[in-house]
Design goal:
There is one protein chain. The protein has 216 residues and is of the alpha+beta class. Helix content is 18%, strand content 36%. A five-stranded antiparallel beta sheet has the order 1-6-5-10-11. A five-stranded mixed beta sheet has the order 7-4-13-12-14, with no helix packed on it. Strand 10 (145-153) and strand 11 (156-160) form a beta hairpin. The model is unreliable at 29-35 and 205-216 (pLDDT under 50).
């Protein structure tokens, strides 16, 4: 009698395990969808302005972008990494202590972002108004103008030139560019940039080259 009860108990356990497996098969797709990698976002913006601008240059539009941050050695996505984006322009500064005739200076607006669980971050489009704080005789023909996009991951700095940004304005090409340095130094991180909404972008061959304009 005890043997038969044990057999019945074993059958109940088997049926229970089969039921659990069946439910798991049904729920697993939904669970996996919920666990899919999600991109990070940008949270705050800070402007350079030290006083009210007195001169403006031509506005510059930077389209919505997606940044993918990976480690150079392993190729692994970098999760929850802070990425600082500087929208840099130049303006003619006068007076300037070391240059009696004035000098071109850099200024920038900053956006703080954090990568998501897949190592990417969605950066919204940005309308930059290049501006300056000197408007006089020496500023004729020297209006503020957009210079470049600077990307910082930890203490590693990379840049995107106006030429690379122009490539990213055409999502039809389904390509990405690689942020780079003028000295070709390869650091710890690699940052690929592509238009927001483009799936599985291919890295553009020109993306590995240095930026066209030198910077600080």
């Amino acid at each position: 009698m005890k043997i038969w009860k044990q057999i019945e108990l074993n059958r109940d356990v088997v049926h229970l395990l089969r039921y659990i497996a069946f439910v798991a098969m049904i729920l697993m797709p939904a669970f996996l969808r919920a666990q899919q990698a999600a991109p990070g976002t940008c949270t705050s913006v800070s402007s350079f302005d030290k006083a009210a601008p007195v001169i403006y240059g031509e506005p510059f539009f930077v389209p919505a972008l997606c940044l993918r941050v990976t480690e150079v050695k392993s190729g692994m996505p970098q999760v929850n990494k802070e990425v600082i984006i500087r929208y840099t322009w130049r303006w003619f500064e006068y007076p300037y202590p070391e240059h009696l005739g004035g000098v071109w200076s850099d200024a920038y607006d900053i956006v703080w972002c954090t990568t998501g669980s897949d190592g990417t971050v969605l950066v919204p489009d940005y309308h930059l108004a290049p501006r300056g704080w000197y408007n006089g005789r020496l500023s004729r023909g020297r209006r503020p103008s957009f210079k470049e996009l600077e990307l910082s991951v930890e203490n590693y700095h990379l840049w995107l030139s106006t030429k690379q940004l122009a490539q990213l304005r055409t999502p039809k090409k389904n390509t990405a560019v690689v942020a780079s340095r003028p000295d070709h130094f390869v650091g710890k991180f690699r940052v690929e940039v592509f238009p927001a909404g483009v799936a599985n972008p291919r890295v553009h061959p020109a993306g590995a080259k240095s930026r066209s304009a030198p910077g600080g």
